[in-house]
Design a protein that fits this description.
The chain is mostly helical. The protein has one domain. It has a two-stranded antiparallel ribbon with strand order 1-2. β1 and β2 form a beta hairpin. α3 runs antiparallel to α7, α3 crosses α10 and α5 packs antiparallel against α10. It is globular, with a radius of gyration of 23 Å.
Length: 334
C-alpha cells in the first residue's frame, strides 16, 4: 500500500523529472511560439496534436515498463490513462456548452483551454496527493471509493442523454458575478483589464472559472477510479496529466462529432462499475489482475465506440404540422 514517500524508487524520481520537463516544454513552446496570437485551431491540426500526445504518453508508458516495475506497472499507467482519457470526453461536452453559453469566438478557444489545462495540472496534483495521504493513513477509504464508483456508474448508465447542462444556473458563476466587477466586453480576449483605476474581469474569466470547477467535479469520478486501479500516486498523477494534456486537441477534434459516440457514456458507466466492483472484491480477498483490468477497460471502451458508429443514434426531426388552408366560400366558387 502507499507509503509516505512520493516515489517508490529512484527511477520514479528520474521519470518524474522527465515528466516535469515535458510539461515545461509544452507550456513554453505552445504559448510562447505556436500560439502567441488568438486563432482558430483546424481539425487537421487537432488530429495531429491528438496523435502527438498519445505517442508521448505511450513512450512514457514504455519508459515506466523499462525502468519502473516492468509490465505490471506499465499496464497500471495505461489503464489509468485510458480511463481518464475516456472520462474526459464528458469534459469536452460540458466545455463546449460553456463556450457556447458565453458565445465565445472560436479564435479564443485555444487560449481558454490552455489556461484551463494549466489549472487542472495544479488542482489534480492537490487532489491526488491529498488522496494518497488519506489512503496511506486510512486504507478503508478505498472501499468507500469502490462503493461510490459503482453508484456513479449505475447513475450514469441510466442518466438521460438529453439532459441539458445550464451553465447559467451554476452557483459558482452566480457567486462570481456578485463578488467581481464583470465587463460584457472581451477586450481583445483578455481575462481582466484596468479602467479608471479599477480592475474589471471579462466573461472569458468567468469561462475559466467554470471550466476549472467543472474539472474538479469530473475529478470526483476519475481520481477514485485511478486509485481503484493503482495506489501509486506517481502513476496516477502522470497518467491523469497526460490524458488532460490531450484534452484540448481532443476538444477541437470531437467538438463537431461528439454526438456520434452516443454509446460511449454507457461504456464509461460499465468501466466505472467494473473498477468499483474490482476494488470491493478485495474485501473478500478476490483480486483481479491488472492484465484483466486493462483488457476489460480497453475492450469496453472500444466496443462502445464501434457500436456507436455501427448503430448511429436515430435523430427524430421535429416536423411542424402542415396547416390545412382555409378557403373562403367565394374562393371555391371561383
Amino acid at each position: 500500500m502507499l507509503g509516505m514517500s512520493l516515489f517508490d524508487n529512484a527511477n520514479e524520481g528520474i521519470l518524474f523529472s522527465v515528466f516535469g520537463l515535458i510539461i515545461l516544454l509544452f507550456l513554453i513552446i505552445d504559448l510562447g511560439f505556436f500560439n502567441k496570437t488568438a486563432h482558430v485551431i483546424s481539425t487537421r491540426s487537432a488530429f495531429f496534436q491528438s496523435i502527438f500526445w498519445i505517442i508521448v504518453s505511450v513512450i512514457f508508458g514504455f519508459l515506466i515498463y523499462k525502468y519502473d516495475g516492468g509490465a505490471e506497472r506499465s499496464l497500471e499507467f495505461f489503464s489509468t490513462y485510458l480511463t481518464e482519457y475516456a472520462l474526459s470526453v464528458d469534459n469536452v461536452f460540458v466545455i463546449l456548452l460553456i463556450l457556447r453559453y458565453f458565445k465565445v469566438e472560436d479564435k479564443y478557444y485555444h487560449k481558454i483551454l490552455f489556461w484551463g489545462i494549466l489549472g487542472a495540472i495544479i488542482f489534480r496534483a492537490v487532489f491526488i496527493f491529498a488522496g494518497a495521504m488519506l489512503v496511506s493513513q486510512f486504507e478503508w477509504i478505498l472501499y468507500i471509493f469502490g462503493v461510490f464508483l459503482v453508484y456513479s456508474g449505475i447513475k450514469i448508465y441510466f442518466e438521460d442523454d438529453e439532459a441539458e447542462v445550464d451553465p447559467g444556473k451554476n452557483p459558482v458563476l452566480k457567486f462570481s458575478k456578485k463578488l467581481l466587477p464583470i465587463s460584457d466586453q472581451l477586450h481583445g480576449g483578455r481575462f481582466f483589464f484596468k479602467q479608471d483605476g479599477k480592475t474589471w474581469f471579462t466573461s472569458l474569466f468567468l469561462v475559466i472559472i467554470l471550466i476549472e470547477t467543472t474539472d474538479l467535479i469530473f475529478a470526483v469520478d476519475s481520481i477514485p477510479a485511478a486509485f481503484a486501479i493503482t495506489t501509486n500516486e506517481f502513476i496516477i498523477y502522470t497518467s491523469n496529466i497526460f490524458a488532460i494534456l490531450g484534452l484540448r486537441a481532443k476538444f477541437f477534434l470531437l467538438a463537431g462529432i461528439i454526438d456520434k459516440f452516443h454509446l460511449l457514456q454507457k461504456g464509461l458507466s460499465v468501466v466505472l462499475i467494473f473498477i468499483g466492483g474490482k476494488m470491493l472484491l478485495e474485501v473478500v480477498e478476490i483480486e483481479i489482475s491488472i492484465v484483466v483490468s486493462f483488457t476489460v477497460i480497453f475492450a469496453t471502451l472500444a466496443l462502445s465506440i464501434l457500436l456507436s458508429l455501427l448503430f448511429p443514434e436515430k435523430v427524430v426531426e421535429n416536423i411542424e404540422p402542415v396547416e390545412t388552408p382555409v378557403f373562403e366560400e367565394s374562393d371555391i366558387e371561383k
